[in-house]
């Protein structure tokens, strides 16, 4: 029936023989939908109570009990973290539910300026930050979602690079007429065995460092989803102790002449 979902796989068997494997994945996809809806609903329901907690915490002035000050500060930090987590979960649910995004020509010159400002705000002068605009063209896609994907990569690069390290953002042409936005850092790097799973939700290399860094563990999942909605791919190169490069690679159909 039309609600049934099948997965087909054709496997070369031997000589001129082929094997066609048909699997009924209807139930699997239904479960996946239930999981998505559940995550989206829980996240949405958490928003209101969090806003209330956040609001009251902001009003608290522990002047009468100075010993409360560090506790209130910690509560603020944690509720901020939870808010970010909920926002990231909602972003992921929204991306999963879409099969295409509203698209427009994205002014890359000004987006790169914004990325530099964001990097500087997170770094607070602790890193050397450079932004190279070498492509002389613009991207075509969702400005909002691509901005959030690039911001995630820039934020990771700064957060996983020790003080005095370097972060370099570069927008350039590729050989086939497409473009590439890369974020390179001189940071901790990622051991090779973690790379295949690094874009999974909540997957983290070192829990303590990642927690300290203030992330939610959802950043790279968001990046991957946004790129796949643009038929683009994420390339990761990393060497422990030397740094990482995360590159978003776009096809020629995503390239537009730059408006001056
Ligand atoms: P998080 O919020 O933990 O940063 P992400 O999904 O953005 O979540 O990244 C997943 C994990 O990948 C991080 O916890 C970290 O271990 C690793 N990682 C991401 N970016 C970098 C980077 N530039 N350098 C080193 N490790 C990174």
Automatic annotation (TrEMBL):
Chain segments annotated as coiled-coil in the UniProt record: none
Residue ranges of every copy of the Histidine kinase domain listed in the record: 41-254
First-tier enzyme category under EC: transferase
Catalysed reaction equations from the record: ATP + protein L-histidine = ADP + protein N-phospho-L-histidine
Main location, first listed in the record: membrane
GO cellular component, one term: plasma membrane
Keyword ATP-binding found: yes
Protein keywords: ATP-binding, Cell membrane, Kinase, Membrane, Nucleotide-binding, Phosphate transport, Phosphoprotein, Transferase, Transmembrane, Transmembrane helix, Transport, Two-component regulatory system
Location in the cell: Cell membrane
Enzyme Commission code(s) on record: 2.7.13.3
GO molecular function annotation: ATP binding; phosphoprotein phosphatase activity; phosphorelay sensor kinase activity
GO biological process: cellular response to phosphate starvation; phosphate ion transport
Chain's role: Member of the two-component regulatory system PhoR/PhoB involved in the phosphate regulon genes expression. PhoR may function as a membrane-associated protein kinase that phosphorylates PhoB in response to environmental signals.
Protein name (database record): Phosphate regulon sensor protein PhoR
UniProt organism field: Arenimonas oryziterrae DSM 21050 = YC6267
């Amino acid at each position: 029936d039309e609600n049934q979902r099948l997965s087909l796989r054709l496997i070369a068997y031997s000589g001129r023989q082929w094997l066609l494997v048909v699997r009924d994945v209807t139930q699997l996809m239904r479960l996946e939908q239930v999981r998505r809806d559940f995550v989206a609903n829980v996240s949405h329901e958490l928003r209101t109570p969090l806003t209330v907690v956040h609001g009251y915490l902001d009003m608290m002035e522990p002047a009468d009990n100075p010993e409360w000050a560090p506790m209130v500060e910690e509560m603020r930090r944690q509720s901020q973290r939870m808010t970010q987590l909920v926002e990231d979960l909602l972003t992921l649910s929204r991306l999963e539910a879409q099969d295409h995004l509203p698209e427009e020509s994205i002014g890359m010159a000004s987006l790169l300026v914004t990325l530099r400002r964001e990097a500087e705000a997170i770094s607070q002068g602790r890193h050397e930050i450079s932004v190279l605009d070498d492509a002389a063209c613009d991207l075509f896609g969702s400005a909002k979602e691509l901005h959030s994907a690039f911001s995630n990569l820039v934020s990771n690069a700064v957060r996983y690079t020790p003080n005095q390290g370097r972060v370099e953002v570069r927008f350039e042409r590729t050989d086939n007429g497409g473009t590439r936005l890369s974020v390179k850092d001189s940071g901790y790097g990622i051991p090779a065995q973690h790379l295949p799973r690094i874009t999974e939700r909540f997957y983290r290399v070192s829990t303590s460092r990642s927690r300290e860094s203030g992330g939610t563990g959802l950043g790279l999942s968001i990046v991957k989803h946004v790129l796949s909605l643009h038929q683009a791919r994420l390339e990761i190169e990393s060497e422990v102790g030397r740094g990482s490069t995360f590159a978003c690679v776009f096809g020629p159909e995503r390239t537009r002449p730059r408006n001056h």
